[in-house]
Write a structure and sequence with these properties.
The complex is a heterodimer.
Chain A: H1 2-7, H2 19-45, H3 50-54, E1 63-65, E2 67-68, E3 77-83, E4 89-98, E5 101-105, E6 113-117, E7 121-123, E8 125-127, H4 132-140, H5 143-173, H6 180-191, H7 199-208, H8 215-219, H9 226-237, H10 241-249, H11 254-265, H12 267-283, H13 286-291, H14 300-306, H15 315-347
Chain B: E1 4-13, E2 16-26, E3 31-35, H1 42-50, E4 57-62, E5 65-66, E6 77-80, H2 92-102, H3 107-120, H4 136-148, E7 154-158, H5 166-183, E8 186-191, H6 194-200, E9 203-208, E10 211-216, H7 218-223, H8 228-233, E11 240-248, E12 254-257, E13 260-263, E14 275-280, E15 285-288, E16 301-310, E17 314-321, E18 326-332, E19 342-347, E20 353-355
Parallel strand pairs in B: 3-8, 3-9, 6-7, 7-8
Antiparallel strand pairs in B: 1-2, 1-4, 4-5, 9-10, 11-12, 11-14, 12-13, 14-20, 15-19, 16-17, 16-19, 17-18
Helix pairs in contact in B: 2-3, 2-4
The chains are: A alpha+beta, B alpha+beta.
Chain lengths: 350, 371
């Protein structure tokens, strides 16, 4: 009851529906379709068989032709709604097909057979979930390994990102040293260069360090992010200077000021950066693709790419595993979106 | 406990000089108040002593040892900030113990010092609370407690009472005075409020635009202000200043004030015709009740009342002379004078301050020395 009341709220409670209510709901509905439609389409399609994915016109729900096990036949046979020459419409299974003529049989009485032109029948379809899309890759490919690699990269990289970004931000906001302005420009300026531009040199460095095919090759080069350093620096600048000076008077060393005063007070910004870092790392594609070439070191995103062959793409597996990949990040969003919203509000980042 | 000596302290930001050579000696156990209008450099001077600002020139000595190049943490001073600067994520106990942890004292020693300070400041029930769960006065006491536990050489206070409401400010002021009496440490206190300065200080340092205008005990400054600035700054309501001209110098001299010649002792250093400024505190003006038969001498000044403030125990009259100079008069008790009334005033002669054309005090006699 409460939910129904919530979902039918109006501009003025209890009044008749105003035209603005209709416009508002219409606008929101369009938004839902535009944003949620593709996701829904993905999830539904991930349960379709390969044939179901390729059929035209496409169906929204995963449908499959009904197959019936008939006595005397080793395989289940496809069921068709058939119009017989005498005008009678019956559900028959197809025994075999020669050219444009099919030999059909009554599933209840397989001895009764009919010869029917194929344009006189239509497949009987029913809602069916091809769960094999999910179970088969998990068994046939080392998908759990990919999942573990992704989790490892995400967690470790986020931890390192938080630590070194906050240290850089501390140095650039609170620690006083000559040439600070220049240091800020250099650090932020070089970090701003996207990985696509420095892909080759960074790859060479990684090769020299013999890190290719190691997950550390994915984790380390992207650990310092301009967004992270800048976000934390701006937040730290808003901390009252008196607090830092009080800590200095209290004989705290720079490390103690950083670790015991600044870090606890920067928690809201750190939470925002952590959420962003998890999303970036989980979805990262280009750089892992470059440095991870062995199957056992693949992350999920690279593993997904493997379904896309040169000659053939296994769309059913690809879609199912895409859903799998989306789930953790969706869960992060569902549970933490409150923090993201307030955190971004607090840090002034958009 | 320690004494402090400032020698020729200067400070400039870029090309802008804000402190112009301050020399000051603070004795062990003394309560010194820096007072002055905002922007006079008093907070900067305190931060220089604390080590939070570097000096451009000069030397800071604590117990005779130069600390000019030492960082704040190694000077052994404690500071109470205007904003209290309590660590918001730490309990009161942690806030007070933080410095002791940094000094690597044993846990038992930290606990006992914190509890001692807490009981001294009546904070014991709040030790486990976070600062945001405390009232303004309690936060202030935590900030003071944080300084006390360290047993610093010198306490520095940067306008510690300005965030409190009037009533609490008076109460905390008394507590601070009691605290100083109890622990007897050297304390340096910055304020823009001359009442705080008068009530707390052993010695007041009046600053203006990065220079010391006068140093002395509160009553020294009140009774013998060295110049017009100190005269106007110390005392509330402020001292009346009226232009006058010397007619005759000497103990039985005379001056022209608002078109009337008044008899007063005029320092011998002045010559007839010199323009001077007379300083008269509001309580040193007496009204002459019109038609008072017992009046023994002619009035010194006639003013028109603009506003009368009745405070019950006393009355403040805000008036102006015929030539438009404002005059404030403090009268004990309740008197009924309304706007537009003309009243005659008598000036208490021994409380008359004479300033020369440069705004400096002219000594009334050879025995009087500047504070």
């Amino acid at each position: 009851m409460k939910i129904a009341a919530f979902l039918t709220r109006r501009r003025v409670a209890g009044r008749r529906i105003h035209w603005t209510d209709i416009v508002a709901y219409g606008y929101l509905a369009v938004g839902v379709v535009v944003m949620f439609g593709p996701v829904l389409w993905l999830v539904l399609s991930s349960f379709k068989t390969p044939a179901g994915l390729l059929e035209f016109p496409p169906s929204l729900l995963p449908m499959a032709q009904v197959e019936v096990t008939v006595p005397g036949q080793p395989q289940p046979l496809p069921l068709f709604r058939t119009t017989l020459p005498d005008g009678q419409v019956r559900d028959l299974v197809q025994l075999r097909r020669v050219g444009i003529v099919a030999q059909m049989a009554d599933p209840k009485d397989p001895t009764q057979t009919f010869r029917v032109p194929i344009d006189k029948r239509e497949p009987v379809r029913a809602f069916a979930m091809a769960t094999g899309n999910y179970t088969e890759p998990l068994a046939r490919f080392d998908f759990l390994r990919f999942l573990w690699n992704s989790i490892f990269v995400t967690v470790v990289a986020t931890a390192i990102t938080l630590l070194i970004n906050s240290m850089a931000a501390y140095a650039l906001s609170i620690y006083e040293f000559p040439g600070k302005g220049f240091a800020i420009l250099t650090v932020i300026g070089t970090l701003m260069i996207p990985i696509t531009i420095i892909l080759v040199p960074v790859y060479l460095v990684v090769t020299e360090l013999r890190l290719v095919n190691s997950l550390w090759a994915v984790i380390l080069p992207g650990a310092a992010t301009p967004t992270g350093v800048f976000l934390l620096r701006q937040y730290m600048l808003t901390l009252p200077r008196d607090l830092i000076e009080a800590a200095r008077m209290d004989k705290a060393s720079e490390w103690q000021i950083y670790w015991r005063i600044v870090m606890p007070l920067t928690m809201p910004a750190l939470a925002v950066l952590a959420i962003f870092s998890v999303m970036w790392r989980w979805n990262e594609f280009l750089w892992p693709l470059a440095v991870l070439t062995k199957t056992e070191s693949y992350t999920l995103q690279i593993g997904l790419n493997a379904f896309q062959g040169e000659l053939q793409t296994q769309w059913h597996y690809l879609l199912a595993m895409t859903v799998m990949t989306l789930l953790p990040i969706a869960l992060v969003f569902v549970f933490l979106q409150r923090f993201i919203a307030t955190g971004i509000g607090n840090t002034g980042m958009k | 406990m320690a004494d402090l000596k400032l020698v020729g302290i200067t400070k400039s930001y870029g090309g802008l000089a804000v402190i112009h050579g301050i020399d000051l000696a603070v004795r062990d156990g003394e309560f010194v108040v820096f007072v002055g209008p905002s922007g006079c450099g008093k907070s900067t001077l305190l931060r220089i002593i604390a080590g939070l600002e570097e000096v451009t020139g000069g030397d800071i000595l604590i117990d005779g040892v130069s600390v000019t190049r030492l960082p704040a943490s190694d000077r052994g001073l404690a500071m109470v900030f205007q904003s209290y600067a309590l660590y918001p994520h730490m309990s009161v106990r942690k806030n007070m113990g933080f410095a002791l942890e940094n000094m690597r004292l044993p846990v038992a020693e930290i606990a006992s010092r914190v509890e001692r300070a807490a009981s001294m400041l009546q904070l014991t029930p709040y030790l486990e609370r976070k600062p945001k769960a405390l009232s303004g006065g309690q936060r202030q006491r935590v900030a003071i407690g944080r300084a006390i536990v360290r047993d610093p050489k010198i306490f520095l206070f940067d306008e510690p009472l300005s965030n409190l409401d009037a009533e609490l400010r008076v109460a905390t002021r008394k507590e601070l005075a009691a605290l100083h009496a109890e622990i007897g440490s050297t304390m340096i206190y910055v304020t823009h409020d001359q009442v705080e300065a008068m009530t707390l200080a052993d010695r007041i340092v009046v600053l203006r635009a990065g220079r010391i205008e006068q140093t002395g005990t509160p009553l020294d400054l009140y009774n013998r202000p060295a110049n017009l600035f100190v005269a106007g700054f110390i005392g509330s309501p402020r001292m009346n200043t009226l232009p006058a001209t010397v007619v005759t110098a000497g103990p039985d001299g005379g001056m022209m004030l608002a078109g009337r010649e008044i008899a007063a002792a005029v320092p011998d250093t002045l010559k007839p015709g010199d323009a001077v400024t007379l300083g008269i505190r509001p309580e040193h003006l007496a009204t002459v009740i019109p038609g008072d038969a017992g009046r023994s001498q002619a009035s010194d000044l006639t003013v028109t009342v603009d506003l009368a403030e009745q405070l019950g125990s006393e009355t403040y009259l805000y008036a102006q002379t015929a030539d438009g100079n404002p005059v404030t008069i403090r009268q004990a008790g309740q008197i009924t004078i309304t706007r537009g009334n003309r009243i005659d005033l008598l000036i208490q002669r021994d409380a008359l301050h004479v300033f020369n054309s440069a705004g400096l005090r002219v000594a009334q006699s050879a025995t009087e020395t500047l504070g």
